[in-house]
Design brief:
The chain has 2 domains: 87 residues, RNA polymerase sigma factor, region 2, helix turn helix motif (Rna Polymerase Sigma Factor, Chain: A); 82 residues, Orthogonal Bundle (Arc Repressor Mutant, subunit A). The chain has 8 helices and no strands. The C terminus is likely disordered. The longest helix has 23 residues.
Length: 212
């Protein structure tokens, strides 16, 4: 989550926002908008949609700041939950949301996309070589390409787990779903990534850290 804001500072600002303190609202925006905005960018892909979603999140914070209960979880969890909800609604409104089946399915490659197998290695080198660094760049590009093929829910669970470092329970709270659903989505998201990466000649192992 980048440089996390001191929880006490955020909660104190939120209490002032509940009293309609505009200065506190401005401070809160500059402290938190970049973090959940980065998450929304991965989710929405378009700057204008992200700007709209960020504004919607902050409007909601202004309206319901008094509803935050620190006994129910961290402020960042509450905030990302609002952001995730706003992002999904925006995708649905623009016809961009779909739920990926949890059943096995073959890898689908865009018809207009040519895959040049010769430009990708089938196995990551086990010892350091000059070409290992180049392979790392290619894997990063392939990982980003594969990530775009996932459903919004699968993208979100990977982003929240590996990039934002939320716990499974926090992710369940953010996505408003049971804990086991988070675990299931993460399992199938990784499986789907492995299938898509295999089409590029890469393998996704437990030793390869997911960095998106």
């Amino acid at each position: 989550m980048g440089n996390p804001v001191d929880e006490k500072v955020g909660v104190a600002l939120l209490q002032r926002i509940a009293a309609k303190d505009r200065k506190a609202f401005e401070e809160f925006y500059y402290l938190y908008a970049e973090g959940f905005g980065r998450f929304l960018m991965k989710m929405l892909k378009q700057h204008e949609w992200v700007d709209e979603a960020v504004n919607d999140v902050m409007l909601t914070v202004w309206q319901i700041a008094d509803r935050y209960d620190p006994e129910r979880g961290r402020l960042s969890t509450w905030l990302f939950g609002i952001a995730h909800n706003k992002g999904l609604k925006l995708l649905e409104r623009n016809g961009r949301y779909w739920e990926e089946s949890l059943e096995d399915h073959p890898v689908e490659i865009d018809r207009d996309e040519k895959v040049d197998d010769s430009s990708y290695g089938s196995v990551l080198p086990s010892t350091f070589k000059p070409e290992r660094e180049v392979m790392g760049w290619e894997l990063g590009d392939a990982m980003s390409w594969a990530f775009e093929k996932l459903s919004p829910n699968h993208q979100a669970v990977i982003e929240l787990c590996f990039s934002e470092n939320f716990t499974y329970q926090e992710i369940a709270n953010i996505m408003d779903c049971p804990l086991n659903t988070v675990k299931t989505r993460l399992f199938h998201a990784r499986k789907r990534l492995a299938e898509i990466l295999a089409s590029k000649g890469f393998s996704l192992s437990d030793q390869v850290k997911i960095e998106l």
